[in-house]
Amino acid sequence: MSNTSSIALFSLSGFSATANYRITLFSLTLLCYCLIVVVNVSLILTIILDQNLHEPMYVFVCSLCINGLYGSIGFYPKFVFDLLSKIQVISYEGCLLQVFVIYSNTKIDYSILVLMAYDRYVAICRPLEYHSVMSVRRIAVLIGLSWLVPLCCEAMVTTLTSTLKLCGSKIDKLYCENWSIVKLACGSTRANNIFGLIIIAFYCAHFLLIACSYVQLVKSALKSREGKKKFTQTCVPHLLCLLNVSVALLFDAMYSRYGSASLPQSVKNFMAIQFLIIPPILNPIIYGLILTKIRNKIIYLCVMTGQRFKFKVKV
After folding, report:
1. 187 touches 101 (CB < 8 A)
2. 3-12, 46-55, 216-225, 290-299: which has the highest mean pLDDT?
3. Among residues 172, 173, 224, 242, which one has the fewest Cβ atoms lying within 10 Å of its Cβ?
4. Residues 153, 136: contact at Cβ < 8 Å?
């Protein structure tokens, strides 16, 4: 990676609005991070340990939760540390690493949601072919690609950004973001802009694929009572997660490129971090509450744990 920039440190100016309530934010952030870890790890372990949940849909849910943990690592530890620090800075290399982790996480999220839409399409529209189409080998390949392609895309984005000569070191956010770094460049950013548009178009195509699959799903589901039941039980949580991620990313994209300087810094901060907070918490909760098999298993484990605890107390 050729670093043509002389910038060694970036300052994160978004923390200027948090000076009066950093302890409160620190407590809430720590609680939020613990909640993300608990709900995601609980769902991952439930799926891994229960043989009845070793089905494609639940494997994809497990992958989604692992990605939630991966993305959270890129934001929360540094954010918590900065809340307690007098000066909020990050090294050039650390900034690029944070960009890579946070934005590869969002791309992986979308890729997994596409796989889940495809899985539901095959299950409802082609039920007799489901087990042959969604074989163990194909699932492994699809999950591998859902991680590898986004990681490669983000690696290329980060590499292009690393070649820019920068004329500033102030990032008006609570964390490092690629567009904020690109705006600091002294020279041409044409290559970054073109590749960025290609990536955006690629992931817009993801959304169109999901939309097309759901048109077919709705048509098929309306034909039978069983189809309606399957659609309600398994497609509704997927749609909620898709809406959750899409709205969060739309806010971030619009804020990064067209955010008004007149907005209060606290509003800017919320718009900048909500896609890092809401999806990792809501996704596992949505699947844990709506998918019957997962919900029943979690309730069973909680009951068993409670009974064991009572038994130990009595002894």
Report:
1. no
2. 46-55
3. 224
4. no
Q: What is the pLDDT of residue 207?
A: 82
Residue range 240-252, pLDDT digits in tens: 777 777 776 777 6
Determine the Cα–Cα distance for residues 170 and 257; give it in Å rounded to an integer: 16
Query: Where residue 238 falls among pLDDT bands split at 50, 70, 90?
Result: confident
Sign of the C-alpha dihedral computed for residues 176, 248, 251 and 113 taken in this order? positive
Alpha-carbon distance 150 to 104, whole Å? 6
Distance CA 17, CA 106 (A): 26
Residues ≥6 apart with Cβ < 8 Å to 290: 233, 236, 237, 240
Backbone angles phi, psi at 106, to 5 degrees: -70, -35
Cα–Cα distance for residue pair 139/214, rounded to 1 Å:
20
